[in-house]
Automatic annotation (TrEMBL), chain A:
InterPro entries assigned to the protein according to its UniProt record, in alphabetical order: BP-dep_ABC_trans_perm (IPR050901), MetI-like (IPR000515), MetI-like_sf (IPR035906)
Source species taxonomy: Bacteria, Bacillati, Actinomycetota, Actinomycetes, Kitasatosporales
Pfam families recorded: BPD_transp_1
Keywords from the UniProt entry: Cell membrane, Membrane, Transmembrane, Transmembrane helix, Transport
Annotated protein name in UniProt: Carbohydrate ABC transporter permease
From TrEMBL, chain B:
Transmembrane segments: 28-56, 95-114, 126-146, 176-198, 281-303
Primary localisation category: membrane
Name this protein carries in UniProt: Sugar ABC transporter permease
Region of interest called Disordered, as start-end residue ranges on this chain: 1-23
Species per Swiss-Prot/TrEMBL record: Streptomyces beijiangensis
Biological processes annotated in GO: transmembrane transport
Subcellular location: Cell membrane
Family under the similarity heading: Belongs to the binding-protein-dependent transport system permease family.
Signal peptide residue numbers: none
GO annotations of cellular component type: plasma membrane
Keyword Transmembrane: yes
Domain annotation ABC transmembrane type-1: ranges: 89-302
Length: 302, 313
């Protein structure tokens, strides 16, 4: 079979039966799979794309670590002046703390609410299900930027302006629809029979869910939770609008202030960028391998 | 106990044996969606309705004497007198189409490459996906450093004889579109690459083997197996991304501020300026309503034309 395949495909896998029809080439060293691609077709475009991806990151690190006024292309001699300036003088220390609170609170709130809603959608038929689904889908078309004014009025009435609570609520709400759709997809992929077996063993629905379904949702929950964290860490408009006091602002707002300064201090800007990037990079490194499996577990197919 | 549970199971096939918990299965789904539904009613549905309501009003904080019911005046003004509406709408369209097309093409290529087996694949995936997690403001920060005319990358390109010294690509109306587009592309491609790579995991290997046996080359395999398999994922990803690119203002707001000379003002950016800086909330609401209807119409048209989920695989 392998030999037949290799022959049809025109590669030179060592044939088991009769003499090879082509002179053996370098490739015969290992048996080539039917879908194998010449190495250069992988490495050349990949290398080019890596350059495009990594130069901007390098550029930021370069500006953040080299002394002001230097035009060297390597960050050496290295200095941490820009960081201490940004962290202390430009209050990035406080911004970092605020962003962390918003990110973690949004993560927890989004995951809990979406688990509950996603479970209902995956496991029950109920009267307003279709309407609820439609609402979730339609909400994807609503530009958050255009909801700023009415949202501002709501939060003013709730006395949440200049409180991180307003940003946490707004981020959670706009993160919910996608999270619910994703999580209900993940739950649908867990066979009901597993839960039923636990019910027969005397578990209530909640205990059965925690014991049987929850562990299987791990990749999906990691994907959804990290989305929520990264999104709220990155998002900028709500914090810009709802938090006007400086000690309540978040990192993206702080960066925007640096960009908008009359004479942009590039070193400080780059250092601020690094501070903004570090938590996301850590989260990303942690979830990177879950990301693809998490999605292929049924996210796209719903 | 187990037997009793099994009997109860038979009589109510869709739930665990009823226990002391207060929630009956009839009420349970409503209780479960209640938190999500209440949050979305209060913070999405209500603002949307208030936008629709204000679109029919004259409502400007700085001109309170004119406030009141306006009928369709705002809408008439949009379609007959407002040149900026049309120019920002055209720019939004250009921006969305450019971004979605290029992000899809590059993301698809990238996904196909990192789906192969090769040495260093895990590392390569992590690297090429990494801008996915970068925010619009951070993207602006990074590209401002790159585009800076005195110490940016362009200076080094000029040193090497490419381009000229002192060019600021972000303040030149001829270059600003592609300068901003490149920055957005940089962080947008990984989204497509991740989604498409995820979907590639579920293509059956046997299909390729069968195609090989039938003598189909790699190109034909791509067009007859891979692409049809990816179709739904691609339609969904392009739609979500298109809507997202239309609505998102972070990058352009911080990178170009809509300038130079309004050259990169998208419709949402124009609306935000009208509503927030111009305090003309009635007119901004009408613009929002029009934008929303356009977006919804285009999305439905797109799903229809692409026959989403139509043919079974």
């Amino acid at each position: 079979m392998t030999a037949a395949l290799a022959e049809k495909h025109g590669t030179d896998a060592p044939a088991a039966d009769d003499t090879p029809r082509r002179p053996p080439t370098r490739r015969t060293k290992r048996e080539r799979a039917f879908d194998d691609v010449p190495r250069w077709q992988i490495y050349v475009p990949l290398g080019l794309y890596l350059i495009f991806t990594l130069i901007p990151f390098y550029w930021m690190l370069l500006f953040a670590f080299r002394p002001a006024g230097s035009t060297s292309l390597v960050p050496w001699p290295m200095t941490l002046d820009h960081f201490s300036k940004v962290w202390n003088e430009r209050s990035f220390g406080i911004f970092f703390q605020n962003s962390m609170i918003v990110g973690v609170a949004t993560l927890v709130a989004t995951t809990l609410v979406a688990l509950s809603g996603g479970y209902a959608l995956a496991r029950f038929d109920f009267r307003i299900k279709k309407g609820f689904m439609l609402g979730l889908l339609c909400s994807q078309f609503i530009p958050g930027a255009l909801m700023l004014v009415p949202l501002f009025e709501i939060f003013k009435n709730l006395q949440l302006i200049n409180s991180l609570g307003s940003v946490i609520i707004a981020e959670t709400v706009f993160q919910l629809p996608l999270s619910i759709i994703l999580i209900s997809g993940f739950i649908k992929n867990v066979p009901v029979s597993l839960e039923e077996a636990a019910w027969v063993d005397g578990c209530g629905r909640f205990r059965a869910f925690c014991a049987v379904v929850l562990p299987l949702l791990r990749p999906g929950l990691i994907a959804v939770g990290s989305f929520a964290f990264v999104h709220s860490w990155n998002h900028f408009l709500f914090a810009l609008m709802f938090l006007s006091e400086q000690d309540k602002q978040t990192i993206p707002v702080g960066l925007n202030t640096l960009i908008g300064a009359d004479s942009v201090d590039l070193g400080a800007l780059a250092a601020g960028g690094v501070v903004a990037a570090v938590p996301v990079v850590i989260v990303f490194a942690f979830i990177q391998k879950w990301l693809v499996t998490g999605f292929s577990a049924g996210a796209v197919k719903g | 106990m187990a037997q009793a549970a099994a009997v109860a199971e038979q009589s109510r096939p869709h739930g665990p044996p009823r226990r002391r918990t207060g929630a009956t299965p009839r009420r349970l789904p409503y209780l479960l969606i209640a938190p999500a539904a209440l949050l979305m009613l209060g913070f999405i549905a209500y603002p949307v309705i208030s936008v629709f309501y204000y679109s029919l009003q004259n409502y400007n904080v700085t001109k309170p004497w004119r406030n009141g019911f306006a009928g369709l005046d705002n809408f008439t003004k949009i379609f007959t007198q407002d040149d900026q509406f049309w120019s920002t709408l055209a720019f939004s369209g250009q921006w969305v189409v450019t971004q979605v097309a290029l992000q899809l093409a590059l993301g698809l290529g990238l996904a196909l490459i990192v789906n192969q087996t090769f040495i260093g694949r895990g590392f390569a995936r992590a690297m090429v996906f990494s801008p996915w997690a970068v925010s619009g403001v951070l993207t602006s920060t990074i590209w401002i450093l790159l585009y800076n005319s005195s110490t940016g990358f362009s200076r080094y390109l000029a040193d090497a004889g490419i381009g000229s010294y002192g060019t600021s690509v972000l303040s030149d109306t001829g270059t600003v579109f592609w300068a901003a587009a490149l920055a957005e592309l940089w962080r947008g491609v990984p989204f497509f690459a991740i989604l498409i790579l995820a979907d590639l995991q579920s293509v059956s290997k046997e299909l390729y083997e069968a195609a090989s046996v039938d003598g189909a080359g790699r190109l034909r395999q791509f067009f007859h197996i891979t692409l049809p398999h990816l179709k739904d994922a691609i339609v969904l990803a392009t739609l979500l991304r298109g809507v997202w690119e239309f609505n998102n203002v972070d990058l352009l707001y911080t990178l170009t501020g809509g300038g130079p000379a309004g050259e990169t003002t998208t419709l949402p950016l124009y609306v935000a300026n009208t509503g927030i800086e111009g305090h003309d909330f009635g007119y901004a609401s009408a613009l929002t309503t029009v934008a929303f209807v356009i977006l919804l119409f285009c999305s439905i048209l797109y799903l229809r034309l692409s026959k989403f989920g139509g043919d079974p695989k």
